[in-house]
Design goal:
Layout: H1 6-18, H2 22-48, E1 56-63, E2 70-73, E3 81-87, H3 96-111, H4 120-133, H5 143-149, E4 155-159, E5 165-168, H6 173-176, E6 191-195
Parallel strand pairs: 1-3
Antiparallel strand pairs: 2-3, 4-5, 4-6
The chain binds zinc ion (2 copies).
One zinc ion (ZN) binds near residues 159, 161, 162, 164 and 185.
């Protein structure tokens, strides 16, 4: 009953490596939505013994969340649409699995009744998705999981204006002289430089 997701994973890594602005990040989220909608709907329909359909995703907003990595907003219980919010901090090479886990967590909310929250149906769906698709969706994603994926990089530079995050292997010019640069997204020149290891 599991669909073959290998082509999706092969496509995801290069797309994530190129995702340096919000439009590209939204395209990556759209790619995950496309890949997982049908598998999720069919698996949840079987698991919960009733037809399950993912709400139409009206918009996906990118946030600067570091503790909350994702959100799914359903305005009315009978609403057939929803809005997603995904943290920009998930978009860096090597973080494919955590990103997919967070987007799938929010997609799972978008499949279930608005009042379900992290209730029993959510837990049942989560367990089925993890088992069948080898995901590691959690109820609460730990900051440490994201930190581990970033372990490869030495420096993390975060824009103080828009929260855009850059990872670097070496102490390049931006890492050494952050005040000389402006963010390509928002024009701010306040950067926080963090040495990761
Ligand atoms: Zn949740
Ligand atoms: Zn910025």
């Amino acid at each position: 009953m599991a669909l073959d997701m290998a082509p999706f994973w092969a496509e995801l890594s290069p797309a994530l490596a190129r995702a340096q602005d919000d439009a590209a990040r939204q395209a990556v989220v759209a790619m995950i939505l496309r890949a997982f909608t049908a598998p999720m709907e069919s698996l949840l329909s079987q698991t919960l013994c009733r037809p399950v359909a993912l709400r139409r995703v009206e918009a996906c907003r990118l946030t600067r969340g570091v503790r909350q990595y994702g959100a799914c907003t359903i305005r009315r219980p009978d609403d057939g649409a929803c809005r997603l919010a995904i943290s920009r901090n998930l978009f860096f090479p090597g973080n494919e699995r955590n990103l997919v886990d967070v987007v799938c967590h929010e997609m799972l909310h978008a499949c279930l009744p608005a009042a379900e929250g992290h209730g029993p149906l959510f837990h049942k769906g989560l367990a089925a998705l993890n088992r069948v698709y080898g995901l590691r969706i959690a109820v609460h994603t730990a900051e440490s999981a994201i930190g581990e994926a970033a372990g490869f990089y030495r420096y993390k530079v975060t824009c103080g204006g828009c929260g855009h995050t850059f990872y670097y292997l070496r102490a390049g010019a931006l890492v050494r002289h952050p005040r000389r640069y402006r963010c390509a997204r928002c024009g701010e020149n306040r950067f926080a430089v963090e040495k990761l290891r």
